[in-house]
Amino acid sequence: MPLRVVIVGGGAGGIGAAGGVKQAAPDAEVTVFTEFEDVAYSPCGIPYVHGREIDDFASLFLADKEAYVQAGIDIHYETRVTSIDPDRRTVHVEEPAGDIGDVPYDRLIVATGFDYADPGVPGTDLGGLYYVKNIRRAMEWDKVLDSVSRAVVVEASPLGLEMTTALAHRGIETHLIDPRPWPLADVADPDIMAPVEESWAEMGVIMHFTTKLEGFLGDRTVRAVATSTGELPCELAVVCTHKQPNNALARAAGLEIGSTGGLIVDERMETSRPGVFGAGDCVELPHGVTWVPVQGLSGSHAYAQGKAAGVNAAGGERRYSPVYVPWAMVAGKWMIGGVSFGETLAKALGIPYVVGLADGISRARYYPGVRKTRVKLLGEPGTLRLIGAQMVGGEGIKERADFLAMAVRTGVTLEDLAWMENVYSPPIGALNEPIALAAQNALSRLKS
Amino acid sequence: MTDPSVRRLAARRRPLRHANLRFAGWLRHHSEHYLLEAAQTELAKQAGRTSPVGPTGPAAVFWRHVFVPVYRRLPWRVRRRVMARMPGSHRRAWHVPPDRRDPAV
Description:
The structure holds 2 protein chains of 2 kinds.
Chain A: E1 4-8, H1 12-24, E2 29-33, H2 46-50, H3 65-70, E3 73-76, E4 80-85, E5 90-95, E6 98-104, E7 107-110, E8 114-116, E9 129-130, H4 135-145, E10 150-154, H5 158-169, E11 173-177, H6 190-203, E12 206-208, E13 213-218, E14 222-227, E15 230-233, E16 236-239, E17 243-245, H7 248-252, E18 263-264, E19 276-278, E20 283-286, E21 293-295, H8 299-313, E22 327-331, E23 334-339, H9 343-349, E24 354-361, E25 372-379, E26 386-393, H10 397-409, H11 414-418, H12 434-447
Parallel strand pairs in A: 1-2, 1-7, 2-3, 7-19, 9-16, 10-11, 10-16, 11-12, 18-20
Antiparallel strand pairs in A: 4-5, 5-6, 8-17, 13-14, 14-15, 20-21, 22-23, 23-26, 24-25, 25-26
Helix pairs in contact in A: 1-8
Chain B: E1 6-7, H1 18-46, H2 58-73, H3 76-85, E2 94-95
Antiparallel strand pairs in B: 1-2
C-alpha cells in the first residue's frame, strides 16, 4: 500500500511539501487540502499588480491545476480541515457541499500559514478594509481601486511598505500610519529608511508615524480612519498588521507551540508528534546568530521548509538549517535589505556589537544610472565576526543580502570583508565595493 | 556517541507543559514589544525623531520602567541563557555549519 501523505494548506509551504514528497517517494499518495480557490501563485506579487508594475494577475500563477493532476498531487480546493486527530492519524474535512468526514494519513504536513493580527480597535467589521492575501479577492479589490481617491495603509510592515508604494504609484492619495517612529521599525534602522521616506514624500505619500490606530469609522463601509492625531478620511483602508501563525488546528490537536506562536519543529521539520511535520509561516525556527526562535519569514523560506518537510515525511533525509534571514524589497524609489538583524533589534535584545557604515555607489561614478548604496555592517566585538547588516540603494541589494547571509553563516569577519575581492565593471559595479568600505569603516572606528 | 555538529539545548525530549508554553508566548510577546520600543526610542532620539507611541496603564509602566531596565542591566550571557531556557524550536536538534576555515582542496 502506498504511503498516504496529507498536507493541510496550499501556499508555498504546502506546495513545496507536495513536491518534496513526490521527489522522495514518487508512488506516495499526496492529498492537499486548501480553503482557497487556487494554489501555486505568488501572493507576494499582488502589490505590484495593484501598482500597475505587473499587467495582470494571471502573470502571478506558476502552474495550472492540471499540472498538479499530472504530477499525481490530489488538491482539494475550497475545502476546510476542521480537526486533526494525531492518535488515530486522521483529519476531519468539510467541503462546500458538506462534510466529507475523516481522511486517514500515514504522514501529515501542517502548512496552515498566517493570519493578520487583529488591529484590536472598533470598526473592523466595516466594508472597505482590505487584507491582502487571496488572489481572487485581490482581483476584486483591484477593480475597487479604480474608484478610490484616498486610502490609508495601517502599519508600515513589509506588506505595508509595498502597498504604500503601489497605491502611490497608482496615483491614489495614500496615507501611512504607524505607532513607531519610522517605517519597518522592528526590522530596519532609521538611517536605512530615511531615503525611502524622502522618496515617498516625492511620490505624494503622507506619512503619519508615532500615530496610533484608534478605529475605523463609517456606517457600512469605512469613511475614515481614527488615529491618535485625528481622523483621516478615506474610501479604503489596507490593513497590514503583523502576520501571526495560523495554528488553531495544530493547537487543538495538542502539537507544541513555541513562544512566537509558531509550531515547534526540529531540523527535519517534524513537530512534537512523530509523523506530523510543519512548514511555512505556521512554524518557528532558530535564528542562526542568536538562537532565538523566529517566525513569519519569506515565501522562499516557506517553500524550502515545505520541500524539507515533504522529503522527510516520505522517508527521505533533508535537513533544514537555522535561519540568517536575508531580506530585500522595493520601498518608494529604493531597494532596502539586510541580513540577520540591524542596530534596532541588536539594541532591543542587548546584543553587543560594533558597527561600520559607508555610502558607496552601485556602478562606476560616470556610468548612467549610478545610485547611492549605503551599507551598515554589525560585527561581534572581539572576534569581529559579521552578525548583521542593513542596506539601502538603487540596485544590487538582494544579491548583497544573499552574499552577506552566507558570510554570517560561515563566520566571515569584518577584516575578511574589508579586504575582499570584488567585481569592477563600470555598468554593473564600482571600483570600491560598498560592503568593503563599510567593513573598513568599522575597523577604522575600532582603531580610533 | 554524540554528534558534535548537532546543537541541542534540551538534554532529553520530554513533552512540554502547555501552561509553560502559554507563559513563554505571553512573556515573549510583551518583552519583545517593550524592548523594541525602548530601542526605537533611543535610536529615534539619536536621529532627531519623536518616540514611538504605545500602550498606557499600569502594565505598560511595569514593562517600561521595571522589566526593560532590569533586562538591560543583565549581562548578555545571562540574558542568552534565559532565552535558551524558553521552550521552542531552538531546543530541538539542529546541525550547525562546520567551521570552513581550512583550504577547500
